[in-house]
## 1
Amino acid sequence: MTELLLKYFRSRQQEAETERVYDTQCPYCSMQCKMQLIEQSIVSRKQYKTIGKDNPTSEGRLCIKGMNAHQHALHSDRITYPLLKVNGEFVRISWEQALEKIRENFTSIQAEDGNDALAVYGSASITNEEAYLLGKFARVALQTKYIDYNGRLCMSAAASAASQTFGMDRGFTNSMSEISNVRCIILAGTNIAECQPTMMPYFERAKENGAYIIAIDPRETATTKMADLHLKVKPGADAALANGLLKVIIEEGLVDEAFVRERVKGFDEVAEHVAALDMDEIAELTGVPVEQIRKAGGIFGREETGMIFTARGVEQQTDGSAAVRNFLNILLATGKMGKPYCGYGAVTGQSNGQGAREHGQKADQLPGYRLIENEEHRAYIADVWGVRAEDLPRKGVSAYEMMEKVHSGEITGMLLMCSNPIVSNPNAHLVQEALQKLKFFVVIDLFISETARLADLILPASSYLEDEGTMTNVEGRVTLREASKPCPGEARHDWQILCDIAKVLGKGEYFSFSSAEEIFNELRIASRGGLADYSGITYDRLRKENGILWPCPDPEHPGTKRLFEESFAHPDGKAVMVAVSNNSVVPKEKPDGEFPLYLTTGRVMSHYLTGVQTRKSSSLAARNFESFMEIHPATAMKYNIQDQSLVKVESRRGSIVVRSQWSDKIRQDTVFVPFHWADSQNVNFLIPKDLDPTCRMPGFKASAVKISPIVEAISH
Ligand code: SF4
């Protein structure tokens, strides 16, 4: 008996000591922090903890989101087998049945309505391999021109501004390590402390080293607290504010004449344009006093080194592209580009916001940042793919415009990968109506999101713990995300699903991949000679070197830490400055008698995008379990809104109900609502459909609303 008991306890102890370690990267923001999930088997139950792992970008740090990411990946609500909607209910079917359903429906849709009746909607949260494959899938397997992705709603303004100004778009022109030694930093419309928390120490170190930090934001945030000067700009007035800063720089003789002469085009037109602008008018437009604009422009112009960072506050506007260009004008006028501790950073939000925009998911692009309307580029990619260039579809339309085409009946079928457009798009009522009209709608995802509820068929995807592949982080550093946990149930890797569908559609020969690495090796060839050249990067190198900054055109190339040291990427080597109007070409909604307040939107630290993943994490959901409206107490009293009370927020497009949160940190003419919640708290029901004419970015960050206490609204 004793012997038996001893044996039993020994075996339980051994079980308790079982530990598995999974190397991976956080699935959330663009820092792509490296980490390890430690799985401990304690007697008969499992326990998990996540720790940071050293790497050149996050330096081993993790934020609360990364530490709890496994809670959604291991959640019992994960979809683990294909689901078909039958009489309004999802029922389990086999993969064979699911693929046959797709074949039948996609084939009949294209036979009846044409190839372009099928659309593909992608994501900036998938790997480079999957983004590349999705672009190829749309153009080769479906032969449709309609493909775009949710990154359009996030990074397109910064990307188009950098491409037009520098000839090339990589989020950060310098490696992140340079931030700590910069003398003056402008943080425009970015709340890094909440959105990319592990980046903050770079700025804190810069401050310790004596940097002067200027923050531009309508709200006081954890990020603006760090600043020496906070310009509390009116929502949507960033382009005008940049004009004010430029005017000061030029008037005070702070232009780097030699740099401008040798490396820049368009300076004289910009100088003439800002000379004609009136500083008092700029102060009126922006809500920032003239003295503060003079102080900021003077300090940035005089300091020897400087960097400017922009994010969604500047970019998610109907003049977002032009506004970013105006901040780039400041860098070029002061010669703060292509040198140590001088440069630009677009602080990307989504995990693979950078890589996902480089390899063909955008309506107008082919891999390696090639252009789908450029004949040479088409010929090169057609050759890599083994198809005829004339068979490649032409340019499609942006994400929201695809939804309009669904609504009008031009697009009748859709494949959507890992995205939630009925929550993330502007004018969300239209998007919801549109998706309900589709003849056949396939969603690939981890959970039944608000959008997946509308699908005819849902296919189970793999999470960051299971899906190996490369990601390109905010710096432009390509990293290898190791992922060795088996997929749960019958879930498959996203790339495998695409290959399986291609096969039943008779295009299997172009999609005969058996690993993510094989896809990457084709991507390397497809990107060779393009602006985003990955051809010198291999999985082996990524493991040994812990990430490589592109471009990296050959296996001996070390990667490119700082861009534009010798020349810019335009054919003549020069950067292009352009005069930017104080006012958007597409008129922005401004507060008036009926809708008297600005509405601006953004993120909170504990949630990611539309919250589909983070709301499955108990530790994160508990921090912010519902949406809210931040409002200045003086404004709240004017509209009879008590703190922590329910309030109706209404625009010309619709209304939502959220809880008020008094804060004297926001402008009195502005309210703020985060965008992580759906249904009656979906702030995107309130956002207009207007798009930036250059990059097709919606104007999420500035619209006009009225507010009323919900009790009153009910009693009326
Ligand atoms: Fe790192 Fe961003 Fe994940 Fe936080 S959310 S752990 S900063 S990647």
## 2
Amino acid sequence: MQYRRLGSSGLQLSVLSYGTWVTFANQLGRGEARELVAQCHDRGVNFFDNAETYANGESERILGDVLVDLRLPRDSFCVSSKAFFGAVDAPRPTQRGLSRKHLRDACDQALARMRLDYLDLYFCHRPDPEVPIAEIVTTMDLLIRQGKVLYWGTSEWPAALVLEAIAFARGNGLIAPQMEQPQYNLLERARVEHEYPPLFREHGLGATVWSPLASGLLSGKYAQGVPDDSRLNAEGYEWLRKLVLARRDTVQQSLLRFSALADALGAAPATLAIAWCLRNPQVTTVILGASKPTQLEANFAALDLCARLDAATVARIEACFASD
Ligand code: NDP
């Protein structure tokens, strides 16, 4: 495993981390989740990503149970949660969003579900136009000073709003956001490569990027239809199935070219897609999603492959997606 600093902070995260969205509770029970978390920790993964909204809190409960069951030393791993969407169906106004009340309640609830004393990373999962930036920043600063959170950040916020939060924090002696969590993969590059670089370069933010395979699409697994055990068949994720399959149809030629290139390089397309994310030094950690140990192994192989990617190969990879 390799480790990178979370932006300008002193925290070193493994460049490959593991997230639980869709998989925990919807696809996997505690036994299988335990196996995957153990495999990640054995391989040096030190960051597990979670959120209040994943399976309405059940994903956090499973991760908490697994961490206790595996008896992993608390100082050997980091855990996140994210607040915004709520952890119940049809949340009331105080059960969602980024108000001081919900940020604090969601933090306490995540700690209880995961049986932790503190969250290493705590994210505002989306911007909330109903809450003043001052309220969000002062709340996050307070949660850090109370020892409940170590670093706070945002997910999928426009760069201008992150800058507003940073300016308010610095102007008032408060702790500024330390990281963003954007989507980043060969099909979604704009935010990380064009919008956020000033945040990374000038303000020291780290990036914990999500969906490196675009929900599995870049692995080529949906070329011949949807496998039975896929997340696209999970109950309640019909919207994701529709989205991913529509995307597949739009970028079909790109995916074929990419699979052929991976083949020529002797790598699985999933491995190559993750290696491509890793080659960007502004990415702190690529959050993997995987529902099987074999998928994790293929994804870990991206570490070695990344070391062998030269500029010409990166150009060939990107050329696969230049047009469709
Ligand atoms: P990916 O894009 O990597 O998709 C993961 C899925 O792809 C797996 O569940 C599996 O699907 C399939 N897959 C993984 N590896 C392989 C492989 N080697 N070969 C074939 N198929 C493979 O990541 P996610 O979309 O899961 O995102 C990762 C994490 O990022 C999430 O768990 C979550 O923690 C975070 N996230 C954050 C968001 C945010 O708004 N901040 C939004 C979304 C995710 P299957 O199970 O069907 O086989």
